[in-house]
Amino acid sequence: MPSLNAMNILDEYTHIDRAQSAYYNTMMSEHSSETAAVEVYRSERPGYTGERPIALITGATSGIGAEFAAQLAARDCDLVLIGRRVAELADRARELEARFTPAVRALACDLALPECRDALVGEIRKLARLDWLVNNAGYGRGVAFTEDSYHEQRALLAVLLDAVTELTHAAAGQMRPGAQIVNVSSLAGFGVSRRSAVYCAAKAYVTSFSESLALELAPRGIGVLALLPGYTYSDFHRYDARARRNRGIVRWQTAAEVAREAMKAVERGRVICIPGRANRLLYLLAKLLPRRVVYRIMAGGEQGRVSNTTPDTSIDTTSIHTNRDAPRR
Predict the structure, then answer these.
(1) How far apart are CA 173 and CA 99, in angstroms?
(2) Which of 76, 87, 124, 192 is the most buried (most CB within 10 A)?
(3) What DSSP state is assigned to residue 162?
(4) Which positions are catalytic?
(5) What is the mean pLDDT of residues 126-149?
(6) Residue 304 above 80 pLDDT?
(7) CB burial of residue 328 (10 Å; 0-12, 13-18, 19+)
(8) In CATH, what number is assigned to the domain containing residue 98?
(9) Which of 125, 120, 131 is nearest to 83 (CA)?
């Protein structure tokens, strides 16, 4: 079993924050400047007629989103891929079309922009059917809330919170019994971070939203899964090699491993999926440790600024497994 070294967790978060900032700055120089969803690739194969399942995946250019796209294509789903990096998104679409038989369509879309989200909602409503929605798009600023511009923090919220809510609302109206929504949240939603206040809060919203929505949509036979990955090898961390190795309790997973565990959770009718035993242990620690201890760990010795008498009001909701009519396994 990995050792429970608090400093490993803190040190990993510190380097991840730096990686997030570098990734964001590079991504901004690569993304589409269009203010609407722009089609950058469409396969010549016939599709989207409703004869095959249709899956829409945001953040599909790389990482967990790309793995979801591959696994759903393997299940004979026509794909609608959403991403920001135009050239890489088109390349991903071509790769998937070469590997699998279903049709592939790619739309470049900046989900931080309201007009882009509106355009994407319109695209969803035009689909003959929608069987899978994977809300995976996201990024981290890696900058303290009070040290960043509000404009940047609001854009982060738009991607992590507004896009998930708006696209889910549109998709639910198009879905039939047996359809599935996957909202990629994060283990960070159960934690706190000095440099990721908005990110942690937004992911807590995504998890809670998904749980409540699962109860709402269960009578219609539509499943909802909140996926809470921990440390994952992806472009999210590609600019800091140090933030990509196992240290103490920290255990990294590949994007493929995360997506596979999520697909298994869907098959079992789960509402919450925390992939990886080490991540589940981190979740239990976040729930069981007194909040003053969590603050001390994450503050890195500066916990004197946080009251040690703050009550612990956390509630464990992972026992909720109401999801469509499929039995739990």
Answers:
(1) 31
(2) 124
(3) I
(4) 199
(5) 95
(6) no
(7) exposed
(8) 3.40.50.720
(9) 120
